[in-house]
Amino acid sequence: MHYDMIIIGTGLSGLMAAKTAAEAGQKVLIIGKGMGSLGLFSNTIDLLGVLPMGMKMSDGLSQWSEDHPKHPYSKVGLDRMKEAISSFTSLFPPPYSFEAADDDKNFSILTGAGTFRPTYLIPITLVAGASLKKGELLIVGFKGFKDFYADYVADQLDCERVSLSLPEASYHEMTSTSLARWMEKESFRKIIGGEIKKTLHNEARVGLPAILGVRETWKVKKDLEEIIGAGIFEIPILPPSIPGIRVYNRFKEWLIQRGVSFHLGHPVAKAVLKGKKCQGVDISVPPVAKFFTADRYILATGRFIGGGLVADKDRVFEPIFNLPIAQPGTREEWFGISFFNNRPHPIHQTGISTNASLRPLNEKGDVLLENVWIAGSILAHHHCIEEKSREGIEIATGYAAVKEALEA
């Protein structure tokens, strides 16, 4: 079957690419072996968390791009980055919206370890926890739930805490996803809300792990606040990420409504190339193989976790198009002088080098494939974890890759 555009990868960069292409009227197929990493890590949208305290994001991004000319942000440009962020936030209107700080600076949000971290966009369920004062809040945990410890978090904040016993029926599966499903039951919310209210001592805010439902989050939050009589906010915790699953579900529903086709469960086995063109992609679906063709292709498979990059004992390689990878010369150089040091390891800048239009390049700087564009963390020359820029890179390059493809 033929499409205008095939997007390989179902992470945030692939979903943003699919949204951008669908809005341009393209016939789109998105291929992935799963739901990407959104359901693992993404609770908020990091653009650049290494900015000095008090610096505005627009100023920081401009300076960062100037100082790091090979970085994905430098290829996208500030204006297109703003367009990409606007496109993302438009997908989340109230009541479950993503918010930026009024002063264009990073928020400082509470984590499940009781520490604070910078981030740029947060879902509305985290906003009440973005400006905390000691002594004014209650941290709520659940007995038997091992991914969040209220006592530990509260000790870091010098505030009140409580660990609630859950109704007997809910003990069958004590995970964040099961708790999120239970939170969507009105009877469960009444019990939990009542128990929290008993422990309140004039605290204005109540922090819970990020489990306030998967699909009815705003209703869960509103009901609990009415029962308790205090503001509720979520605290990001260990994987899986319920806020990330919400983002994935929203994208998928929106894309399907606009005619985007999904092929999930089986990865692309190989790309068929002829000269500087991709002719199509093979998908192995035992006992048969499927072949799809398109005018344009977006590669957004991520790095090692998503399988976009694979490492053997000697080198890192890209398995679908066999594109060259910018990487340290030898395995001994992957982790620098010492594994445990305070500098990012060279292996974490590994990825595909592209030109300003996000087309892949060879070692000489020549475009390898004229109808393939690269998006997301598989791009080279960034330390997205260290920089706290992963979601920003994915959103910006997913959007920009499609824009470049359509202009071409």
Task: Supply database-style keywords.
FAD/NAD(P)-binding domain; alpha/beta; 2 domains; four-stranded parallel beta sheet; globular; 408 residues; seven-stranded mixed beta sheet; Rossmann fold
Q: Layout of SSEs?
A:
Layout: E1 2-8, H1 12-23, E2 28-32, H2 38-41, H3 57-67, H4 72-76, H5 78-90, E3 98-100, E4 107-110, E5 116-119, E6 121-123, E7 137-142, H6 150-157, E8 160-164, H7 176-183, H8 186-199, E9 205-209, H9 217-228, E10 231-235, H10 242-257, E11 261-264, E12 268-274, E13 277-285, E14 288-299, E15 310-311, E16 316-317, E17 372-374, H11 384-387, H12 390-407
Helix pairs in contact: 1-10, 1-12, 5-12, 8-9
Structure notes:
The chain folds into 2 domains: 2-98 and 245-407, FAD/NAD(P)-binding domain (3-Layer(bba) Sandwich), CATH 3.50.50; 112-235, 3-Layer(aba) Sandwich (Rossmann fold). It has 12 helices and 17 strands. It has helices spanning 12-23, 38-41, 57-67, 72-76, 78-90, 150-157, 176-183, 186-199, 217-228, 242-257, 384-387, 390-407, and strands spanning 2-8, 28-32, 98-100, 107-110, 116-119, 121-123, 137-142, 160-164, 205-209, 231-235, 261-264, 268-274, 277-285, 288-299, 310-311, 316-317, 372-374. Helix 6 (150-157) links the parallel strand 7 and strand 8 (160-164). Helix 1 (12-23) packs parallel to helix 10 (242-257), helix 1 packs parallel to helix 12 and helix 8 (186-199) packs parallel to helix 9. The longest helix has 18 residues, at 390-407. The two termini are 22 Å apart.
